[in-house]
Amino acid sequence: xxxxxxxxxxxxxxxxxxIAPSYGLFIDGEFTDAADGRVFKSISPSTEEVLxxxxxxxxxxxxxxxxxxxxxxxxxSALPGSERAKYLFRIARIIQERSRELAVLETLDNGKPxxxxxxxxxxxxxxxxxxxAGWADKLEHAxxxxxxxxxxxxxxVIPWNFPLxxxxxxxxxxxxxxxxxxxKPAETTPLSALFFADICRQAGLPxxxxxxxxxxxxxxxxxxxxxxxxxxxxxxxxxxxxxxARTVAGTRKKLTLELGGKGANIVxxxxxxxxxxxxxxxxxxxxxGQVCCAGSRLLVQESIRDxxxxxxxxxxxxxxxxxxxxxxxxxxxxxxxxxxxxxxxLTEQGEAEGAERWSPACELPSSGYWFAPTLFTNxxxxxxxxxxxxxxxxxxxxxxxxxxxxxxxxxxxxxGLSAGIWTEKGSRIxxxxxxxxxxxxxxxxxxxFDPTSPFGGYKESGFGREGGRHxxxxxLAPSSPEGER
Amino acid sequence: MSTVDxxxxxxxxxxLYVGGKFPRSESGxxxxxxxxxxKWLANxxxxxxxxxxxxxxxxxxxxxxxSGATAYNRGQILYRVAEMxxxxxxxxxxxxxxxxxxxxxxxxxxxxxAIDRWVWYAGWTDKxxxxxxxxxxxxxxxxxxxxxxxTGVVTVIAPQxxxxxGLVSVVAPVIATGNTxxxxxxxxxxxxxLSLGEVLATSDLPGGVVNVLxxxxxxxxxxxxxxxxxxxxDLAGAxxxxxxxxxxxxxxxxxxxxxxxxxDYAETPGIERMxxxxxxxxxxxxxxxxxxxxxxY
Lengths: 485, 297
Known about the structure:
Chain A is of the alpha/beta class.
């Protein structure tokens, strides 16, 4: 489709970030090699260029890191809350100062557009640390008893879709409440967590309070299963979440899980169409759709289906896919070859099952992992693409006639993480929001996040909340008499 | 024992309580319930896995109306349970004394505390949302509100020892917030739980909100822990080995699990038994803008 405007390239400079050729594990305040000397490469998914070689944690390293965290726990948990708060405020400030550098790094390692890392990920990361810093000396007022206590060592495993933001969601509340941390970033995006380790050093954080172990699933499993871990927090797939729930069964480990989703974005016939289209685009194409709370099912009222789809297709034709470092880019690279293969397989299945596929004319770069924005129409609830989480820029369009039907279809999912409602009628928003079995509901907006706002799922989207006062609970033992040690 | 001219008493047939009705076990099985000195008290239904599945269907059917009832209404009904119990106190004192081998005065203290616990939770129904929910001051033009909602259908493995006070202490918090429950009664001492069903049936509590099963705890709890239409499980009355097995089975659809822990049921509870079976829903609403000329001052 010919564009009225041609965009000149507007690349963000790579020079603000200095990526070392190799990185170690971060244990007890030091960067160190893996016990067995293993390393793996982190590549840029938009170019397949090797960015750095990173030490790969194994079971022995997990044990060493948990010991360091255990040792650090005694002093860290005994610090006055106001002192812990100041460390977190320092970290928040250093993140703000280094945010351009971290945004470029994240875009290189993850493949997402600089527009998103610069304007969404990094501001939210800093805000999250700032928010939980303030809680550290006010925990007795948080509603978890008069003297809530930390749990001990937290083992945390995070995904690749928002590497630094998921780190912040995990580490900030854990430290504020007096726990110490061993965190495993995803194998495709280890770099920003290692830069965070450096920030911990700059902030003067005591050794062992935060330990970072880049590695694969085996390291995550070793961490989750380690007998001296008191708390397990995981964000990732529902299948792995269930495996973790089985692993911690019968132990005293406290568990929170933030898992998959198949969010319904419901558009009623009185919705402001242009705003709804923007919300649909944000809902499923933000971060290439690699978002657990993505609005991956569009439920549109039958009477406006054609009008809405025309507008949506027109809008999708204007999205710019390409160099993630270009400030004009809307759609970046898919995070890995493996994820690209999964998206490709699921969309092929969508076609095979009879849904109708559409993508705008869109030239994909010759190297790297790319997937054009894709719409499926004539989708039924039985289709795989309406049930399984695709975790890619793929929208399945279904229709409904009545609000009851919309609610029934929205809730017809094993998941229950997010949902959207588009209508001008306030009472309908409240009635529908009330009936949706989902942890986060966006009315006339989508994919909004804030450190004060609890986030997490119903049903098989997991349990526990991250963010807000609610997010403290995952890291605290209530001060009930029987809970005293 | 009775003298020759004393009236021959009428024994009670203890039955399950499922969907507001009092069925026998579909299996036709019963087991002997004895007191602490092994004296026969009654036969109790030995519920089967089919009874458990029927109870899930009843609890699921009741969930919509019960969770949709006003919190005030739920509070009224829980208070009504206390009223009904007060009137049948003597029966429960006798049953608890026999079940737990307690003196009459100690059993009476248990029953009094159980009645008071219903009153305590009756008062919570319309307060818990204010305590654990609320507005969130997000950095943007949005009204953002978090509200607790019931998790759904909850399996409750009632405590094995505290056959009535313990039972009430684990059931009341589950239904106070709008969940529905399938209760697996104390295996050895199920009679107070089965009698509680009779009280609930006459307290305006809709059928299916609480379902009471008696029998072998492991036999009934295992299919319930694995059931795909059960959303949560309270393992209070499971021993360590069973609790681990049930928690593993519960992972299959990510049930919320409350692990067994030492509890003094005589103490005033905290709110953890309620929050364990609550979800938090957060809704974002744009606040809009009145624009440049929008000031109404």
